[in-house]
Amino acid sequence: MAKLNIGCHLSISGGYKNIGLEAVSLDANTFQFFTRNPRGGKAKKLDENDCNALNEIMSANGFSNIVAHAPYTLNGCSADEGIRKFALDVMRDDFEKLEYVNGVLYNFHPGSHVGQGESKGIEQIIYMLDNAMKENMKTHVLLETMAGKGSEIGRTFEELKAIIDGARLGDKIGVCLDTCHVFDAGYDIVNDLDGVLTKFDKVVGLDRLCAIHLNDSMNPIGSHKDRHAKIGEGHIGLEAITRIINHDALKNLPFELETPNDIEGYAREIRLLRDLYKG
Ligand code: FE
Ligand code: FE
Ligand code: ZN
Fold first, then answer.
1. Active-site annotation holds for 69
2. Residues lying with their CB under 5 A of ligand 1, a single-atom ion
3. Smallest-distance ligand from the CA of 258
């Protein structure tokens, strides 16, 4: 029987080996971490032995892919040239370091165009990707689906597809679907999961879907709020979440919890979801 690939967001502050051990202790077989402080500070110096130790832990424990999340503040489509330059530098530096870790999916929020308009924003995001990505990189790059608060790009599947199509190395770019975000963006994954996935397949292609952020939502569909709730405690609900983890098109992907929990809360949600998984 197949095993659910489930994990949660963990802190990398103790290093790569420790984050792997922490995931194992939670019965997770994947995890997500910020590549650096969410405020966008300096990343730790690279320790190759530490990366290798994590690689060994992951292969010994049957881990699926893991997700490295770019800092929230990374905005490659800011109207401010300095902020765009910073985003490009961070992305380049992250890509370089992550080459030492196996099975990494690099997830980032496409960005907020802050009034420049969607097409200008998409153009600037493509510029960032074209200047940060390398032909021979191991890391796979993921665009996260967004709730559409403010001027966020990525609230529609069409916007994500436009970025992928425009990027020179678009074949190395996939999507991470955040269940809270797509619900907040207006996609009805509660009453019409099949319909939403069919739409995704038509616009982007299900073969591009590489990871799921598994979150409930504090707000109703279409609210554009982006407030995550614990599993089963929001407007998505446990029944819909059970259908999501067991859906044929999704059930083998890595699921990352970004729910408002401490470590014990994450362990409980991981146990609950393993129980609800039909394999
Ligand atoms: Fe995110
Ligand atoms: Fe997310
Ligand atoms: Zn969110």
1. yes
2. 144
3. 2
Is 213 assigned a catalytic role? Answer: yes
Q: Is residue 144 part of a domain?
A: yes
Return the sign of the alpha-carbon dihedral for residues 252, 212, 261, 26: positive
Sorting pLDDT into bands at 50, 70 and 90, what band is 107?
Answer: very high
For residue 1, tell me if it sits in a domain. no
Range of the domain at 171: 6-276
Quickly state the pLDDT bin for 91 (edges 50, 70, 90). Answer: very high
27 in catalytic set: no
Element (H, E) at 233: none
Q: Which of 50, 178, 256, 269 is catalytic?
A: 178
224 flagged as catalytic: no
pLDDT at 38: 65
Q: What pTM value is reported for the model?
A: 0.97
Evaluated on CA atoms 215, 221, 227, 229, the torsion sign reads negative
For residue 111, the cross-strand partners are 153
What is the per-residue pLDDT for 46? 85
DSSP character at residue 136 = T
Q: How far is the CA of 167 from the centre of ligand 1 (A)?
A: 21
Number of domains within the chain: 1
Identify the active-site residue in 36, 69, 155, 208: 69
